[in-house]
Amino acid sequence: MLNAEQLRDAPLNAQIEFWNRWNAEEREAAISQVSIDQRDLVVGWLEGMGRGDLKILEVGCGAGWLCGRLTKYGSVTATDLSNHVLQRAAARLPDVKFVAGDFMSLDFDSSGYDVVVSLEVLSHVADQPAFIRKMSSLLKPSGFLMLATQNRPQLERNDIPNPKPGQIRLWVDRHKLAGLIGTELEIRSLFSITPQCNRGVLRVINSGKLHSAMATVGLGQVGRAVKRLQENMWLGWTLMCLAQKPTSRPR
Q1: Are 137 and 242 in contact (CB under 8 A)?
Q2: Architecture of the structural domain at 4-195+237-244
Q3: Mean pLDDT, the chain, as a whole number?
Q4: Rounded to whole angstroms, what are the CA distances from 149 to 169, 175, 179, 239?
Q5: pTM
């Protein structure tokens, strides 16, 4: 079992190498149901804003799989460590401004952004409070952070391989996440989505084959109700948070 310090210890060049390889093998090949559910929620939040002139920053965009959907709502800047992957993303998505490098060391538009999106990045950052502070600092007053991260209690119920060289892994639970974000922003919504498990009873309950069979015999509504119940019990794979920057800080 790796301890917390070992999980934090990953030189930047090793992180770049890992994420270039991982994105090429995973995100450029296919998008998982976990990511699809995250995407749909972010798009729903953006639709609810009713605007097409937003300044959007995506932090940790990976292969740019979400960026094309974000351009409907305004101008998009996207950043990631995966420099080689971003070169290919830029060729596919010329309307997006891609910036390769360490987010914590990069400079961005000082006038601020209406929306910052970050999906499954927080758990791969060694200094999480500083990461949240920087994203908050880049938001305009009343701007929104749309964040997804792995739900620690649920992932610990799964069989997951140990981190590879260059991969930081610092999962958080909902209480830790609320504490990190709540120090900088006002949390508007925090919940879990996408229950799934690869061991134990939950593996059976969350089986895609089981849900398909239930739908076939007219029990799809029951399957959806079970899914919502698990999400309400914080058994989702992902924690989703919508938070807003206050217009001013009380003294």
Answers
A1: no
A2: 3-Layer(aba) Sandwich (3.40)
A3: 89
A4: 11, 13, 14, 5
A5: 0.88
